[in-house]
Structures are given as C-alpha cells and as structure tokens.
Amino acid sequence: xxxxxxxxxxxxxxxxxxxxxxxxxxxxxxxxxxxxxxxxxxxxxxxxxxxxxxxxxxxxxxxxxxxxxxxxxxxxxxxxxxxxxxxxxxxxxxxxxxxxxxxxxxxxxxxxxxxxxxxxxxxxxxxxxxxxxxxxxxxxxxxxxxxxxxxxxxxxxxxxxxxxxxxxxxxxxxxxxxxxxxxxxxxxxxxxxxxxxxxxxxxxxxxxxxxxxxxxxxxxxxxxxxxxxxxxxxxxxxxxxxxxxxxxxxxx
Length: 252
Prior knowledge:
By secondary structure, the protein is of the alpha/beta class. 36% of the residues lie in helices and 26% in strands. It contains seven helices and eleven strands.
C-alpha cells in the first residue's frame, strides 16, 4: 500500500492519518480541521492520495483545496462509492460513512471472521460484519459524554461527572453511582450485543475504536470479551476503500 492520507471528520473532532503499508506513520487530531492544519502533513514525501469522510456538513472550498493538494487523487466517501464489503442495510443513503469505514477497517483486520464493530465517540455505534464481509446492521446510542451531560442538563441536582475514576459494582456516592450507571451501562450494552452477534453471526471478536475506547477496553476484557482496539479504525477503512477503488479502476 502506498502512502495514503485519510481524513475522518467526526461530530466533535477530526482525525487525519498518513498510512504506509497499512501502518499509521503520522496522526493529527484537532477539534475543527482546516487546510492550514493539514499543510505540515503534506511535508511528508510520497503521499499518493487522500480518502475523506465526514458525518458533518462538508465545506466545498475545503474539499476543492484538498483535491488540489493531492493532484485530484481525492476520494470522498459517499453512498455511491464502491466498497470491498457488502452493505446489507435498509437505507444506505442514511448510513453514516464513519460506520461504513469502520466496518471496512474491521474486515481488513479480520478477513474471513465475523466481528462486532464498536465505535465509542460522541455516539456509540455497535455494528456487525459477518464472515463474508457483509455489513449486517447495528445499533446507535448516545456516547459516554452525552450520557453524563444529559444527566446534568435534564435534572435539577445531579452533577456533571466524567468517565474517569473508580468503577465499583455499585456506586457509594452520587458521583460513583452516575459513573457506574453510565460507564457500566455502556459495557453491559456491548456485552449483550456481542452475545447476540455471536449467536446469530458467529462473531469471534470485538473491534473497538473511538475516543472512549481506552476507557471501555479493560472493562470489556474483564467481562471476558475478546477485544481488539484500533484507535485509527475509520482511517484504516478509508485507506482500504481508496486502494479498492484505485485497483478496480473507479474514479476518485
């Protein structure tokens, strides 16, 4: 695989990764990505092209400038872009491009195996990819920070709590009770989804990504789940899609 730049614009931050032979060699994460932020990335020799996806409004000027920087070799992930997996989903036009890219990334990590793909960011998405590389669907729920914030915003007396701190089986004060409810609840959701996905599709792994992956990973392992963590999973999938489209002769 050549050097490929991937840009993943999420709900609350953006991540740019330069890939070489499937390995991330440079990573940049910012709250709001600009072309100026990306210019140091282009000091790396040999970048062959860029794959981009966004869950937000895409700025046309940003895209056109990015396209010029890679001499036209820009792939913007849309529902019409060919994929190395099959999407078995009732509304491809509304399926988040980040979910698609994460599924492609998981399939690249575990070809021939079924997996539960968990992206724990602003929202937590829990998706299933089967042994044949079929995206079978999944679940969407509020992410960890949204859960903490909703308790603060929609109650009269509950405080804002973050995800860090001890997590006993049951809280012994208000803060630990909130933390156990939010974080422990997310863990239980994933454990239940894995049990269902294993029963129906034969899933053998959880592939975990997202900003809260580091919090969830040890807790999921404590519950006996086989977890592979890849913080650059969406970017990995974008790089795979770029290579697939280039190989198949589809235009950027």
